[in-house]
């Protein structure tokens, strides 16, 4: 469903040129849960932004749901993005002035849903994510874990094909982090493709496959089960 061929991203300022991604080629199938790992500065967020149609590569090809999109304009990307992708970021990105309900409703407004359809969908996810009792609260009245749960609700309310998450538990303690990971795991079991950037081995263990980046290149790809077995063997 997603495929990149020699995907390259170079950032140029007047003084410096940074190759954030260097000929990255890989595929992600429908329904997979993939973790992208690697040290700070290796290109994880850059890759996620391109996969999420927030940015274009400098070179190489990107096939999104079978269509080559690397030359798309911002407007074309925004259209595809709204219909197909839900985002979850480390810093929640909720709007403080809007209630929980209104934050979650936002993507549906952008997509032109009627108010009755919006109400139905928002209440469905509030129920599913067990946060209905907070619907009239504002983000700053919630714990970090609850805020991230609202962000996950907002990411999934339009039933996207794909969820992209960048360090989704980065600002959470381990209990709330596990709650969010369990939500992502449930969504994946129901067929949503998930691509997640993480520093955390614990979070990565929820994925089926780990893609490791170093200095803008893929260094290894492994199945989580094999990885867990190898790291257990290492400890002996
Ligand atoms: P990670 O998410 O793995 O920490 P990033 O993808 O954010 O890494 O960054 C990869 C490299 O690209 C870094 O060297 C970073 O400084 C550089 N970079 C990222 N975004 C920009 C940008 N907008 N302008 C210039 N350099 C950037
Ligand atoms: Mg990053």
Short key terms for the protein model shown above:
236 residues, disordered C terminus, six-stranded mixed beta sheet, 10 strands, binds adenosine-5'-diphosphate, binds magnesium ion, globular
What does the model show?
The longest helix is centred in the last third of the chain and has 16 residues. The chain is 38% helix and 27% strand. It is globular, with a radius of gyration of 18 Å. A hairpin with a 2-residue loop joins strand 9 and strand 10. The chain is an alpha/beta fold. It binds adenosine-5'-diphosphate and magnesium ion (MG).
In short:
By secondary structure, the chain is α/β, with parallel strands linked by helices.
Shape: globular
Q: Roughly how many Å is the radius of gyration?
A: 18 Å
The percentage of residues in β strands lies in: 25-35%
What ligands does this structure carry? adenosine-5'-diphosphate, magnesium ion
Q: What is the CA–CA distance across the termini?
A: 39 Å
The averaged pLDDT comes out at 92
How many alpha or pi helices? Answer: 8
Largest sheet: 6 strands, mixed
Describe the strand arrangement of the main beta sheet, using strand numbers: 6-7-8-3-9-10
Which stretches are low in confidence, meaning pLDDT under 50 for 5 or more residues running?
A: 231-236
List the helices and strands and how they pair.
Elements: E1 2-12, E2 17-28, E3 33-37, H1 44-51, E4 59-64, E5 67-68, H2 74-84, E6 85-89, H3 100-110, H4 115-128, H5 144-156, E7 162-166, H6 174-189, E8 193-197, H7 201-204, E9 209-214, E10 217-223, H8 224-235
Parallel strand pairs: 3-8, 3-9, 6-7, 7-8
Antiparallel strand pairs: 1-2, 1-4, 4-5, 9-10
Helix pairs in contact: 3-4, 3-5, 5-6
Bound molecules: adenosine-5'-diphosphate (ADP) and magnesium ion (MG).
Magnesium ion binds next to helix 1.
């Amino acid at each position: 469903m997603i495929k990149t061929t020699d995907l390259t991203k170079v950032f140029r300022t007047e003084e410096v040129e940074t190759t954030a991604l260097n000929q990255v080629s890989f595929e992600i199938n429908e329904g997979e849960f993939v973790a992208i790992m690697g040290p700070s500065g290796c290109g994880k967020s850059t890759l996620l932004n391109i996969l999420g149609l927030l940015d274009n590569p400098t070179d190489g090809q990107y096939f999104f749901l079978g269509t080559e999109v690397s030359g798309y304009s911002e407007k074309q990307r925004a259209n595809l993005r709204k219909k197909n992708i839900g985002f979850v970021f480390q810093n929640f990105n909720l709007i403080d002035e809007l209630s929980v309900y209104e934050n979650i409703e936002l993507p549906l407004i952008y997509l032109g849903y009627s108010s009755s359809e919006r109400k139905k969908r928002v209440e469905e996810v509030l129920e599913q994510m067990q946060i209905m009792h907070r619907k009239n609260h504002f983000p700053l009245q919630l714990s970090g874990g609850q805020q991230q749960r609202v962000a996950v609700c907002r990411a999934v309310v339009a039933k996207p094909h794909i969820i992209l998450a960048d360090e989704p538990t980065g600002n959470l303690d381990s209990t709330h982090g596990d709650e969010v990971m369990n939500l992502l795991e449930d969504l994946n079991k129901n067929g949503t493709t998930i691509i997640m950037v993480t520093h955390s081995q614990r979070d990565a263990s929820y994925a089926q496959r780990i893609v490791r980046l170093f200095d803008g290149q893929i260094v290894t790809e492994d199945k989580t089960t094999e990885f867990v077995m190898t790291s257990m063997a290492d400890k002996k």
